Amino acid sequence: xxxxxxEVKNLIKRFGGLTAIDDVSFTVKQGECLGIIGPNGAGxxxxxxxxxxxxxxxxxxxxxxxxxxxxxxxxxxxSMGLTRTFQLIKVFSNLTVRENLCIPGMAxxxxxxxVAEEVARKIHLEDYLDTQAKNLSHGDLKxxxxxxxxxxxxxxxxxxEPFAGLNPEEIVDLDKIIDEMKKDGVTQIIIEHRLKxxxxxxxxxxxxxxxxxxxxxxxxxxxxxxxxxxxxLGKKGETNA
Length: 241
Ligand SMILES: Nc1ncnc2c1ncn2[C@@H]1O[C@H](COP(=O)(O)OP(=O)(O)OP(=O)(O)O)[C@@H](O)[C@H]1O
Ligand SMILES: [Mg+2]
What we know:
Blueprint: E1 4-15, E2 18-29, E3 33-37, H1 44-51, E4 59-64, E5 67-68, H2 74-80, E6 82-84, H3 97-102, H4 112-122, H5 138-150, E7 156-160, H6 168-183, E8 187-191, H7 195-201, E9 204-209, E10 212-217, H8 219-222, H9 226-234
Parallel strand pairs: 3-8, 3-9, 6-7, 7-8
Antiparallel strand pairs: 1-2, 1-4, 4-5, 9-10
Magnesium ion (MG) binds near residues 44, 45 and 87.
């Protein structure tokens, strides 16, 4: 039996005349951390929206744990164990950390409070359980948004630019959190412009440019590939590799 948790086949998504995702195919293995990079506007977030059910593809298919999930709702996918975070932080600012981690439809467990406390420990916010989200720092908000996704007890998590806007100390902290999450068995796909941080975590990297996959390989191979270098030199992006 295949140990792929996700398979994306010939995915196409158009916005009017623009083909944002142009015949993209790839697989993700159970327990793997896959990185997705590419210049601004390459289609990375659109790909996440298609996989997580927020957008429907024009054609192509998506399989999760061997079942076709193309076109299923985000809610249904969360209940199956597939969840995402957003490029812009989405939390309930008037609610506490505990309440944020209790609300958004806990998928599997009935013990919401217990899950909230366990997730708070995993995102290093256990001392802030009763703090309102609006009083958290940017770095802690970012961790909370990942915690909200973790509280659904996912098997596959899609992280959209988790390191964006963080200071060096916050980056080290989040790096540990993502690494521990992987050790807990959560399969990860991470979109990130900060290549140094991503390459530290990713087992394999896919490069998107103008909606197409232009490269797939190890982090070491990516930095040596001329098509990748050209894609990045052709456009400005917040890269630091
Ligand atoms: N809902 C939408 N309607 C129309 N065009 C869209 C929509 N969402 C994205 N696009 C366009 O699709 C292309 C891909 O956008 P996307 O947000 O997926 O890029 P990205 O790779 O995530 O970029 P960034 O690195 O800046 O986040 C862009 O040209 C964008 O303007
Ligand atoms: Mg994006």
